[in-house]
Amino acid sequence: MNTPIALVLGGLLVGGLIVDTVMFGNEHLIFLMKKFLDLLEWVAFWR
Hints:
Elements: H1 3-24, H2 27-46
């Protein structure tokens, strides 16, 4: 993956998070972050 593709994908991700937060509030984002942290702890256990 080259730099322009990575920048576009990162921009789309950040843009999607901003749109989700503006339209639906930050409850979804908080839920997803909690689940992501649980996943990280689980993966770290298997490391």
